Amino acid sequence: MTRPGNTPLASMTGFGRAAGESGGTSWTWELRSVNGRGLDLRFRLPGGLDVLEPALREDAAPLLGRGNVSATLSLKRDETPRIAPDPLVLDQMLALAQDLAARIPGAAPPRPEALLALPGVLRPAQPMADEAAEGALRAEVRAGFRAAVAELVASRRAEGARLADTLHTLIDEIAALTDQAAAEAATQPTRQRDRLLAALADLQANIPEERLAQEVALLAQKSDVREEIDRLGVHIMTARALVAQGERIGRKLDFLVQEFVREANTLCSKSASVKLTALGLDLKAAIERMREQVQNVE
Length: 298
Prior knowledge:
Layout: E1 14-22, E2 25-34, E3 39-44, H1 53-60, E4 67-77, E5 83-85, H2 87-103, H3 112-116, E6 122-124, H4 131-185, H5 188-203, H6 209-222, H7 226-245, H8 250-270, H9 274-294
Parallel strand pairs: 3-4
Antiparallel strand pairs: 1-2, 2-4, 5-6
Helix pairs in contact: 1-4, 4-7, 4-9, 5-6, 7-8, 8-9
């Protein structure tokens, strides 16, 4: 669970839903959010309600920092299907039938049921527009959207709490590996110096002491990883502070992970022992796991 005193950290993954009814029309909002570099809101709205999109964007943007969010609105109107004649088509059919009957001696006049059975004469009746009802529906739908966004935010917060625990665990692992690497690296320059002196003694090389001192100093400098260890320590403190801060830290954590990777790579390249190299590789693996988690932080 989230540690006491922490500001809630939010994930970019979540789901929100809201449903309601207005004037015989039921509606349902479904919002889904996944990772994204910025905030990308995509709406699927029924015809006639797409005019709400600018207002809906204004409602959502302050509450959602990042993520690809899809928002789908479904409508179901409770209306009894009705049909009505198309006046233009009916007039044309009647005129044709009357003209044909006039040309045939003794023909009966056109029958209404026969005319109505002709293709195209009858069609679904268009409901009469009720501006007041449509206005109420739009207001209800917008309020429902805000409720769905609130549920989405809560869902992202809940996922963020689990994500924060995972990040704390990974940071602790990186800190422990860094401490082990610091202990292993503390004597690395001395061991390198002794190894070089022993190799030269075996070769009985006739090298001036001044030149030998320069080579030993250069080798010790190349194998000194104290700066990398110190910077890793600073990055660990920064990572802990950011996770405690919680709110909209994803980009900062992403940049920080890049710095972690840089120091771990340098530590491995300077390593002069199998144990330190192994610790460096474990560090890189833990940092990579941290990077995967950070990708989902808002």
